[in-house]
Design goal:
- The chain is an all-alpha fold.
- The protein folds into four domains: 200 residues, Growth Hormone, Chain: A (Up-down Bundle); 57 residues; 186 residues, MFS general substrate transporter like domains (Growth Hormone, Chain: A); 58 residues, no CATH class.
- Helices cover 75% and strands 1% of the residues.
- It has 23 helices and two strands.
- The chain has a two-stranded antiparallel sheet with strand order 1-2.
- α4 runs antiparallel to α12, α16 packs parallel to α18 and α17 packs antiparallel against α22.
- It is globular and about 70 Å long.
- It starts with a strand and ends in an 18-residue tail after the last helix.
- The C terminus is likely disordered.
């Protein structure tokens, strides 16, 4: 695909930025907005909450499958058309989700919604870079990263509020006007571009292997903790299917005359290292984004809304600072900015590792706010470093692969591994604390007698209170350990940053002819 991008004036460029931002926003929002509504959805459709989690899994699977296909679709149908049609179809699928009459129907519509939304993140990124002038590309990335950061934080809060006040179906209906407006504006501004497409054949075998490998992997990651990981025969089968799928897909796709995924971007050192750093950084970041509100709700008796409020301050600083970082990213060494980001992440994770069970809402919000400085300096320099050497004709493909690996590592592996470590280490600490209580049995008996005498609490209730206290402390110690390890991992990742070259964000936005 070759492009002759239109030279847009300030107002059309602003409208394009808003249009692409809206399309990205609703896609990212829907990765998290339904999470807090699962009990309501399950109750309304007459299924168990565990069955209801397929609403999340179905979306994640189809979304993950489409992401690496972005480059192929853009080359075949043009990036503008793919973005416009995907956004419009995503809106219609959201409408169908709101009208769902049963769990199977909702799952089918969520699969369609995830598939149609899979291209929106990488294409919004590549379209912004292609249409912004050279000296403003960092600014475009700053805006894009703000949307990427704020949407998943806002999702649970907005989802909880909408569900409580209007019902769960409205978490899908709100996408319709936003998505259709995004599609209309993008088509109006870019629809007349002269773009030559490549009508290459579709490698059906490669596509089949990709669907099998990615689909099995995503289901395994989503359901692993719920089904006790590799103690479950079903999880073992999924792991085997995914491994076999990737084993055959990678060489088949590499030697194919018409590969469905373009691996050539990995020949650029910056892209390879940047993608690995993005995957590992997002793995830790998104794992914490999920784990903190989960701990607050299950162990600290926070409602979904207040758990969302507690973690929301992480989005305040990036909301204002990300655009500033993007504006000046070409004037500084991006490696220093990224080093600062990882150092701030590490510092705040060590801070989290000192949390105690009597912690206040303010004490949770403060380190989350400070962590926002790290988040604001995370996405923009990483994308700038990774995509700087990529020619324009390969930008959509490279962006698709970059975001696919980032989202699978973060939203899939990070979430699953963090929650699994937290639960399993809790069991260890609970057993150790129970042993401690047994050693000091005399004091335990005195404590229980005090509860009975002073608070008129029966002996069984007293034992339940003691068990709850032990359980809560075990979860707290487990959470501390998870974040302590996360802090060290982020410190270690600073070293590979300096293996990248200090290229400016120019090639990613240059014309194919110029490169």
């Amino acid at each position: 695909m070759t492009n002759e991008a239109k030279s847009l004036g300030p107002i059309p460029l602003l409208l394009l930025t808003l249009a692409l931002g809206m399309g990205t926003f609703i896609q990212i929002l829907d990765t998290s907005i339904a999470n807090v509504s699962i009990p309501y959805i399950a109750g309304d459709l007459g299924v168990s909450p565990n069955e209801g989690t397929w609403v999340i899994t179905s979306f994640a699977v189809s979304n993950a499958i489409i992401l690496p296909l972005t480059g192929f679709l853009a080359n075949r149908y043009t990036d503008v058309r793919v973005f416009v049609y995907s956004t419009a179809l995503f809106s219609l699928a959201s409408w169908a989700c709101g009208l769902a009459w049963s769990l199977p129907s909702l799952i089918i519509f969520r699969i369609i919604q995830g598939a149609t939304g899979g291209t929106l993140i990488p294409l919004s990124q590549s379209l912004l870079l292609r249409n912004y002038p050279e000296d403003k590309k960092g600014l475009a990335l700053g805006f894009w990263s703000t949307v990427v950061i704020v949407a998943p934080i806002l999702g649970p809060i907005l989802g909880g509020w909408i569900t409580d006040n209007y019902g769960w179906r409205w978490i899908f209906y709100i996408n319709i006007p936003i998505g259709l407006l995004s599609a209309y504006l993008t088509h109006a501004l870019l629809g007349n571009e002269k773009i030559k497409t490549e009508k290459v054949p579709l490698d059906l075998i490669g596509l089949f292997l990709l669907v099998v490998a990615v689909g099995a992997l995503q289901v395994m990651l989503d359901k692993g903790d719920q089904w006790d990981w590799f103690d479950s025969p079903f999880i073992l089968k999924l792991a085997a299917i995914s491994a076999i799928g990737f084993y055959f897909f990678i060489p088949w796709n590499y030697f194919s005359n018409y590969p469905v995924v373009d691996f050539s971007c990995f020949k650029y050192r910056n892209f390879t290292i940047g993608t690995i750093l993005s995957a590992l950084g997002y793995f830790v970041f998104f794992g914490s984004v999920v784990l903190v509100p989960l701990w607050l709700q299950t162990q600290m008796d926070y409602t979904a809304f207040w758990a969302g409020v507690a973690v929301a301050p992480i989005g305040i600083v990036p909301l204002f600072l990300s655009i500033f970082v993007g504006k000046y990213i070409n004037k500084v060494d991006a490696r220093w900015v990224l080093t600062f980001s990882f150092a701030m992440f590490s510092y705040t994770f060590f801070w989290f590792s000192g949390f105690e069970t009597d912690i206040s809402l303010y004490q949770v919000m403060l380190p989350r706010f400070i962590q926002g400085f790290g988040v604001a300096c995370f996405f923009v320099p990483l994308v700038a470093i990774s995509l700087a050497p990529i020619p324009t004709e390969k930008l959509a493909s490279a962006s698709g692969i970059f975001n696919f690996i980032r989202l699978v590592a973060g939203g899939g592996v990070g979430t699953s591994l963090f929650v699994s470590m937290w639960n399993r280490w809790h069991q260890y600490y609970h057993a150790r604390l129970a042993e401690t209580v047994t050693v000091y049995e005399d004091n335990t008996v005195e404590f229980l007698e005090f509860l009975e005498r002073r608070l008129t609490i029966s002996t069984p209730e007293s034992y339940q209170i003691l068990d709850n206290l032990t359980n809560n402390q075990a979860f707290m110690l487990s959470l501390n350990d998870v974040f302590y390890i996360a802090g060290w991992l982020l410190l270690i990742l600073i070293a590979p940053i300096w293996l990248c070259s200090n290229e400016k964000l120019r090639a990613a936005g240059a014309t194919a002819v110029g490169e």
